[in-house]
Amino acid sequence: xxxxxxxxxxxxxxxxxxxYKKDAYWAYYHEVSWQDLKPSLPRDLSRPVLDVGCGTGLxxxxxxxxxxxxxxSDLSRKMLDVALRKAGEQFPSREADAAVADIxxxxxxxxxxxxxxxxxxxxxSFSTDRRRAWRNLHRVLAPxxxxxxxxDSRFGGCQPFVGRNDLEGLEDFLAKGAGTWLADRAxxxxxxxxxxxxxxxxxxxxxxxxxxxxxGKTMFDLRGGHPWIxxxxxxxxxxxxxxxxxxxxLALGRAxxxxxxxxxxxxEAPQRAEPRTERVRRxxxxxxxxxx
Length: 292
Known about the structure:
CATH superfamily: Vaccinia Virus protein VP39
CATH architecture: 3-Layer(aba) Sandwich
CATH class: Alpha Beta
Distance between the termini: 79 Å
Structural class: alpha/beta
Helix content: 25-40%
Low-confidence stretches: 273-292
Strand content: 15-25%
Number of domains: 1
């Protein structure tokens, strides 16, 4: 029997792209995500990359355009069908591989298969077993490979509780990060987890990853048709600020999503020795001014 998460995404798959096209903010949001992701992309195009929780294929298709061989995966068969149809239309001479697989269960994929993993659309927040999800990401990623994962931010999710005058709910949400995806249909509502920057880093490190960086996205909540989004020069200035300040406490506190970049350690690589430091003896003879 499909989960409520799967039922919800199956139902909206055909119109998912249109929903997000209604507000130009989301194109800006995705550009902030991509701008942060790009520096971690592998130079070697020979090894496949994984788009887990691919939805309708936004980031996987962009990776294909950049020359990568992309494997699409999602827990929703209908979302995956849309992604594959779009891949066929945009890249008719290339074959895209795919598998119905949740981030919690990447069983279709063998160990260390991928040089890079992207998980946008917050599949880790929707996971029913986050420890298992982290272990799966670690398992399928090659040594020294990076994963870029987007999640819901706990501080960014406070406003609905304020709007409902739900002080007890706000206290509980800030303490635990547990929320419910409020789909229109009750049978399609499913739990999600919102992270703090600290809890996100800790979970990644416990799974054996090195944390490269965490950013808040976006610093500016421009949803609802803000005029800054439509002006190209203004948009470039905003993106420059996102890039400059995205990893600062300011962005991490303001943002409604967090994005973490992690690297899988190479167990076979020799450990670098700690640099030796010399102690400076106090009371030594002072050099004369100008002496070398």
